């Protein structure tokens, strides 16, 4: 088991537990090997929105690298609010495959790879201001 990836995954769960915007969460998948790790969690937010994410991380030269990711936030009616991912279905976008879906209609390039805990901070701000 990769200790650095385990610690990062543990920190994510602690953050979810401590977040006032997260009502509950469920670990769908948590696999850690010597070289990589996969984590998928579905959470219900305090306003009944849903935030689900998947990350696939590898460690190279003592650095954690986010190889694959999907951060999906939808409202309680099931309408997409924001999804950031690196699925390769927009190859002509700058910094492909990284992109963000804003609602059903808007897709924009992401100029840098998002950080899960920073995105959770943004969700908290939006949820708790209501």
Summarize this structure briefly.
By secondary structure, the chain is of the alpha+beta class.
Please give a handful of descriptors for the protein shown.
130 residues; globular
Structure overview:
The protein has two helices and seven strands, in the order H-E-E-E-E-E-E-E-H. The chain is α+β, with helices and mostly antiparallel strands. It has a seven-stranded antiparallel sheet, covered by helices on one side. Strand 3 (50-60) and strand 4 form a beta hairpin. The longest helix is centred in the N-terminal third of the chain and has 16 residues, at 3-18.
Give the secondary structure arrangement, pairings included.
Layout: H1 3-18, E1 22-32, E2 36-45, E3 50-60, E4 63-74, E5 80-85, E6 99-102, E7 106-109, H2 116-128
Antiparallel strand pairs: 1-2, 2-3, 3-4, 4-5, 5-6, 6-7
């Amino acid at each position: 088991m990769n200790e650095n990836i385990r610690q990062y995954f543990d920190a994510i769960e602690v953050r979810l537990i401590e977040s006032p915007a997260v009502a509950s969460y469920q670990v769908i998948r948590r696999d850690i090997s010597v070289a990589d790790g996969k984590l998928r969690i579905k959470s219900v937010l305090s306003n009944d929105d849903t935030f689900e994410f998947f990350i696939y991380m590898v460690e190279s030269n003592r650095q954690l690298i986010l190889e694959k990711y999907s951060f999906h936030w939808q409202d309680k009616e099931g309408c997409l609010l924001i999804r950031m991912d690196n699925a390769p279905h927009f190859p002509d976008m700058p910094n492909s495959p990284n992109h963000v879906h804003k609602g059903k209609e808007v897709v924009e390039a992401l100029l840098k790879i998002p950080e899960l805990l920073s995105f959770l901070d943004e969700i908290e701000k939006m949820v708790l201001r209501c």
